[in-house]
Amino acid sequence: MARRTLPRGVAPLILASSMWAFSIGLVLPLTLIYLHRVRHLSLPTTGVLLAIPGVVALVAIPVSGTIVDRFGPRWVLAGSMALVALAQAILSVSRASTGAAIALFVLGLAEGPAFPAFNTMLAERAPGAIQQRVFGINFTLWNAAIGSGALIGAIFANVTDTRSFQAIFVASAISALSCSVFIAVIGGRPSPEGEPAEATTSGEGGTGPNRAEDGPGGYREVLADSLLRRAFWLSLLLAMTGYGALESGLPAYANVVVKLPVRVVALSLTVNTVAIVTAQMLVVHLLRGRRRTTALATVGLLWAASWLVFGSAALPGSSSVRTAIVLAFAVVFGLGETFMAPTLTPLITALAPEELLGRANAISGGMFAVAFLVSPAIVTGLIALGLAGVWIGLMSIGALSVSAVALRLQRRLAVDQDIGEPELPPEPFPEPSAY
To answer: Under DSSP, is residue 291 helix (H, G, I), strand (E, B) or coil?
Structure first.
């Protein structure tokens, strides 16, 4: 089989995303615990604070989509990473809800534009059939970096030692700042020949005729497409039953309801990462020649099962059994992620006009921002009311609805819109040698 290499410019961008992921992994399982257990903020207050980034991102994402389409994603992403670093640094010294609110406001301003900018940048550098594979590779390394960060956080975090958490947030800031500098250095979108395009007076290399001009067509044109609207609705369901619920729900349910220590929460993210890194490229190979919507329907089934497993951790049992259940949840949830990562963004990229790709990714990112806005308030509110079981039920039903919406969308899509990397033909047997 001929060796397949990544397009020029993809590897440095994936390396930059790994720096970003490491920054996230350090604090992802610890932010809620830091605010609630270390800074002694009430659980409902913590839930409201963790919703701030989602509110800010909802405002920032539409603007950033237009900027990405007009000037290119490079500087949007570099600036966003610098703001992430600032937010984590502020959070490390915040002693009350006011300081935490400022930090989380800056974080929302940063992370809202960051994901659409990165997805657009990666899609531009890996067009065509290889895009699904590239997103799968990026997700594998992304999760390896998140897991590494979470493991380090688990080793050093101590709820009785404030300085341990402060050191973790400072390390997260340094990693995000390194990502910002690296993105600024690696250059703009490569030209078709594979070399970086020359910068223009309008901004980044690659601006020009393939970038959207100002006008009424932008978001209106994207939202007028019924297939894209269905894909955005699918993004929202995936966000609400996936990352939006995981970020706040995992630490809140495992630590407050199941009564497991902080290190188990961080360890579960590490186990989740190991599952993803182990399975991702196998899943990418499995998905060749198959419909993306079928893969997304599989995500719904796996996530519904994972939330039911997670809910059972609150049943009577020893600490070791409850820990094993939470770790099993992390594995099954991670398997669902391996089906989503190489398919959701490439599906939206396949449906969106090239000149409006930034706006389409911004809307999809906005769906995740909505989830990060409402999920912390929902999970902390229901847990505070003693209704943790209701929350688990909502997550399971929502995940099943992902499968239903994906299969309905499948009936509306042409095969070439829905299939990513084609299945490789079998290699012919070598000709027998003549003597």
So the answer is: strand
